[in-house]
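COMPLEX REQUEST
Ligand: glycyl-adenosine-5'-phosphate
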Amino acid sequence: MITKTIEDLSTLVSLSKRRGFVFQSSEVYGGLGSCWDYGPLGSLMKANVKRAWWKAMTRRADIVGIDAAILMHPTVWKASGHVDGFSDPLVDCKDCKTRFRSDNTESYLKHQKCPNCGSKNLSEPRQFNLMFKTTMGPVEDSSNVIYLRPETAQGIFVNFVNCQQSSRYKVPFGIAQIGKSFRNEITPGNFIFRTREFEQMEMQYFVKPGTDAQFFEEWKETRWNFYLKYGIKKENLQFHPHGPTELAHYAKAAVDVQYKFPMGFSELEGIHNRGDFDLTQHSKFSGKSLEYFDEANKEKYIPYVIETAVGCDRLFLAFMCDAYREEVTTSEKGEDTRLVLGLHPQIAPIKVAILPLSKKDELTSVAEKLRNELAEDFDVIYDESASIGKRYRRQDEIGTPFCVTVDFDTLNDQAVTVRHRDKMTQERIGCTQLSSYISEQLKRF
Ligand code: GAP
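STATUS: Structure written out below.
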């Protein structure tokens, strides 16, 4: 058997559309640039990705969660540096009217040429702010300008004191959040890798100054292990430390966890030592003290922050890429390809497929009853059309770890056949034990 991995993102784009993971947004109107909708399976899987991250963070004894509003006081973005600094340099081609980034466009950097038509008739680079602007209230006025948040982190910084005091946690402790962010990216693309509306999963860990370097290293290891736990292949991960020219305006130190996407190793998560930049800025702009009082040592200080920030959509894509495989076998009958999404069972959208061997009432009534019972505990699917082989294949390509076949023997022995996705082994399990059997299997991962 030969196993092929993913070579091109277009393979995933078509699988996603065909099986209901991800659709282009507003497709009936021709689509909207770099916006995507999660379909029936995609929305289940995305919820699983978020659940895995949320669990890894908030089940710890030293991390609480929040869910802050997307719209924030406009001064937040002045204090954070986003109004002045969150921009890309843009150049306009005066001939073909293409607009492109001057800092990462090869033809411009090497030859000062338009990447579209090759013209040298170009404008000077101008800074373009990436924040989406809107107005609040019924009057469209510059004094009512408000931004869609470009990162979730600021909702955490401005709630640092609220969270610390209400939870009575002592430094070091963290605040985690999952939510939508918006960036008017100049060069979005690569499917859901870079989009203008996306979800972030961010955690800010507040530490005593001087202990930050040690916590930075600890979080690097913790986050690395998270990816391994959920089945990402080690050889597809690497750290990329930021050099002085790559560091964001707020960062003392930064490292990216990169994943080997089909277009090459690219950022999956950023881990940053933000020092006391954000709390100091919000303290300055709001006039409120954001200091922490350490009761044990009777000292006051502004904590330093170690941040871990990963895009949910980007992690979704990494899981899909990592899981995709084509198993090709050759026999005298010819070549056969089994397409499998080898997703970690806790990430897979559907845990169990119920497949009655025939459409006869005596079997479907048992199968439907079983489906309803299992649906109390798991996301399940019911499929009674086509041959059993075809139905197994349908489940393999969406990553369903367990297929349950209800056959005529079930009517006598009250047992079903459970078929495992990866090894394709089969076991006979009693109907009344099925739910606990699947729970046990899922816990093993
Ligand atoms: N608070 C820090 C922060 O936002 P970032 O490196 O700009 O840092 C963190 O973003 C993560 O959010 C990235 O590693 C990436 O996974 C995700 N992300 C950022 N921009 C994105 C975009 N336009 N589309 C999808 N995901 C994005």
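REMARKS: The first helix runs from residue 9 to 19. The chain has 14 helices and 24 strands.
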